[in-house]
């Protein structure tokens, strides 16, 4: 295509072993899925609480359909802000113990919104090196200065804060999506307090997973709205729906409604999806059974890996990576695991740093003990086979 030289870029990517493939999913998300014509026990999705295909949701959404329609038809500002969006925002704010919440079409858009609208020219954003791509892109979109600190390094963060004379934001994931570890938010919040910086936390993998009731990172660390003034939660992962929300003081929400471009200039999330989110939030509010079940499955997986001496990263969340290093090796391992009937994520650069390709295992509340045993046995065999080659 004219001057673009697309084939060269594609060939370069290929020569690095970094080309990604899409495979066709022929079933709903769940404990077992049909992908590319094969059935696997699924350890690759972010559907941590097994809600993505919940039957009771399907019937309740069908019932609501005449009053929601399918498309939302307009942005929130014009005439697309449905009563179900409104209700969901209220319930969510209550669940998260925050004054108010604002729903976005997805987490990517919410992160762009927050950074673009809050950080201005002359301000400083200090971000964890391993933050999600959407936060990196949001930092670029805001015209603020941008610095990164080594992953979860509190000393480096404090040094940056000490040196800053600008209005400063600290931006971090709560649970890092490719490592599964949790940011030390108590200490980060203290540093923000000490240096008068404003903390922005992306809780995409914490919401529904962390905390006794699955409220997320703030419940886990017992942090209030003052300590984490800008909290972003997403609904396409543990909540098994779609969309995202920013929550905090009412004035923050009022401001975002006026100034967040990726909130204003886009079609509202279909209200039927708001109904799905609402239904699943109700499931969470009815009790932490699924959250507890997930936690038990994580513990069981870790226990079996310890017995088999499978080297895991230090993660206590649903994301359990095994770092392999080389791109071809990780792809080969993924294929071999499939032969044992288990599907895992195979993550390569540029999603993760060079030479840190990894198997990304995700656990859900729906896995049976026997599934986890099947996975660990397969991992053990495949990793040994790998050592011999
Ligand atoms: C998935 C993810 C997002 C994006 O959320 P979507 O709703 O999928 O757009 C943002 N941040 C983190 C850390 C994520 O893992």
Structure description:
The protein has 389 residues and is of the alpha/beta class. The protein is 43% helix and 17% strand. The protein is built from 15 helices and 12 strands. The strands form 2 sheets. Strands 3-9-8-7-6-4-5 form a 7-stranded mixed beta sheet, sandwiched between helices. The protein has a 5-stranded mixed beta sheet with strand order 1-2-11-12-10. It is globular. It starts with 5 loop residues before the first helix and ends with a helix. The model has no long low-confidence stretch (mean pLDDT 96). The protein binds pyridoxal-5'-phosphate.
Q: Major sheet: size, sense and barrel closure?
A: 7 strands, mixed
Q: How much β-strand is present in the residues?
A: 15-25%
Amount of helix? 40-55%
Bound molecules: pyridoxal-5'-phosphate
Subunit arrangement of the protein:
single chain
The number of helical runs is 15
How much is the average pLDDT? 96
H/E element order: HEEHHHEHEHEHEHEHEEHHHHEHEEH
The number of E-state strands comes to 12
| Alpha-beta content class | alpha/beta
Shape: globular
First-residue to last-residue Cα separation: 42 Å
What is the strand arrangement across the widest sheet?
3-9-8-7-6-4-5
Uncertain runs = none
Radius of gyration: 21 Å
């Amino acid at each position: 295509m004219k001057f673009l030289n697309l084939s060269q870029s594609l060939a370069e990517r290929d020569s690095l072993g970094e080309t990604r493939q899409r495979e066709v999913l022929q079933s709903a998300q769940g404990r077992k899925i049909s992908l590319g014509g094969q059935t696997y026990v699924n350890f690759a999705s972010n559907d941590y609480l097994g809600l993505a295909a919940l039957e009771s949701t399907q019937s309740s959404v069908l019932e609501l359909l005449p009053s929601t329609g399918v498309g939302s038809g307009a942005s929130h500002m014009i005439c697309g802000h449905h009563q179900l969006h409104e209700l969901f925002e209220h319930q969510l704010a209550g669940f998260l113990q925050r004054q108010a919440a604002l729903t976005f079409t997805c987490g990517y858009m919410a992160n762009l919104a927050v950074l673009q609208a809050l950080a201005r020219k002359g301000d400083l954003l200090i971000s964890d090196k391993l933050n999600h791509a959407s936060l990196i892109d949001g930092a670029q979109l805001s015209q603020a200065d941008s610095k990164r600190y080594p992953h979860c390094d509190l000393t480096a963060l404090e040094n940056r804060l000490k040196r800053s004379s600008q209005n400063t934001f600290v931006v971090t994931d709560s649970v890092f999506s490719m490592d599964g570890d949790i940011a030390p938010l108590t200490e980060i919040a203290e540093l923000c307090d000490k240096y008068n910086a404003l903390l922005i936390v992306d809780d995409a993998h914490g919401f529904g997973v962390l905390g006794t009731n699955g409220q997320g990172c703030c419940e886990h660390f017992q942090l209030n709205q003052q300590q984490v003034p800008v909290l972003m939660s997403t609904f396409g992962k543990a909540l098994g729906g779609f969309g995202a929300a920013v929550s905090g003081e009412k004035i923050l929400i009022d401001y975002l409604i006026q100034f967040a471009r990726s909130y204003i200039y886009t079609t509202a999330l279909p209200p039927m999806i708001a109904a799905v989110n609402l239904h699943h939030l109700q499931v969470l509010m009815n009790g932490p059974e699924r959250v507890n079940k997930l936690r038990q499955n994580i513990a069981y997986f870790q226990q079996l890996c310890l017995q088999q001496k499978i080297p895991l990263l230090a993660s206590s969340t649903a994301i359990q990576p095994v770092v392999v290093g080389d791109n071809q090796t990780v792809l080969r391992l993924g294929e071999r695991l499939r032969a044992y009937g288990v599907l895992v994520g195979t993550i390569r650069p540029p999603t993760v740093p060079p030479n840190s390709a990894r198997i990304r295992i995700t656990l859900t509340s729906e896995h049976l003990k026997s599934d986890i045993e099947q996975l660990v046995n397969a991992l053990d065999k495949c990793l040994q086979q790998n050592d011999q080659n």
